[in-house]
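Section: Multi-chain targets

For targets with more than one molecule, the full set of components is provided together so that the structure can be written out for the assembly as a whole rather than chain by chain. Components appear in the order listed by the source. The example entry contains two components.
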Amino acid sequence: MRFDKFLEHIHPSKISEDRIRISSTFCLGGAAFFLFIALGVTGLLLAIYYLPSAAGAKVGIHDLTYVIPFGWLIRALHFWAGQLMLVAILLHTLRVVAARAYLPPRQGNWLIGVALLLIAGGLDFSGYVLRWDSQTFWAAQVMSQLLERVPLIGPELQQTLLGGSQITESGLLRFYAFHCLFGPVLCLSLIMYHFWRVRRDGNLGKSL
Amino acid sequence: MGSVKTLANLLADYMLPIGKNKHPESRPGRRRFVLSLGWSLLGLAFAGVTWMTGGFLGGARARSDPEPANFGPPDAYRIGSVVKLGRIVLLRDATGFWAVNAVCPHLGCQPDFDENRRLFVCPCHGSQFDPEGRFLEGPAKRGMSLAALRLDSLGALVAYPQEKVKAGDRFKP
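Its structure, encoded as tokens over all components, is:
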């Protein structure tokens, strides 16, 4: 394995003219990645003041919004980057569908992309639950009940993902761990593989 | 006049329509200008972000003392009255006046005076103080300071937050 040529390979040495037109990709994947980086930076800052417990979440979010200098700004940037990233990924998916780029030989990367879309949705939802007010608590409750109704493995799924049949503080800790650790690490690994596969599979499918 | 001329020269150098110049890229002055403008803006943005991030990481701190407050003629206040002006609260009982700097020592929020319970309650994290600013409970851990009271030359009651007085001291006009 060699990593020293990684940056050189991010962009190919040769590229056909129609592929560098903005309308080939609209740079939607790039926009989503940029927003992912922005989410990482603002998220690291927010993690300094947030505590994943019932009382800690209340005080942390109050202080971030009203007391810490520029806390409101960092929170707003994190929120809007999250919403926009989901929008960018959805549009990216639509673009890929329209260009029929899910067909062989790119079907593998299409599946990676779908996985990234689902994880991004999970990150968005878990971030919402971290507010831990009555609104987001009941949102988590609804999600828990939905999981329970999954055929055959429902209760086990609920137990595994949320740590119990009721939403409690230990559930909040799981949302926190997923939002700050498992989700982003998984996302970043898949994103790097996704980029590499774009180059390896070649082209971008039919131009729009 | 020299500076005006220089400015005009600069404008002529950088803002000439491209059509008048067959080889705009052969004008290093313009390119240097755009380049240094770009770098300056980038540096400015970087400095701004660093400043804001520094403030964010520094966290919350109690703000500086409030400004002096002029409460007007002392006769206007009945015994038992509580009046807030800016961040200073003036109180009066049978023994005299005192003024509390209503700035919570915890994170600098402004505690409100609860008339029913006769105590200050901070809206941010619920710290409580007695009417003379002494700490009762909550995350503040210490009490609020009292401002010195004096009459000015027109006989108005003025509170000076920079000059601290002990709890229990009364001002009698």
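The longest helix of chain A spans residues 169-201.
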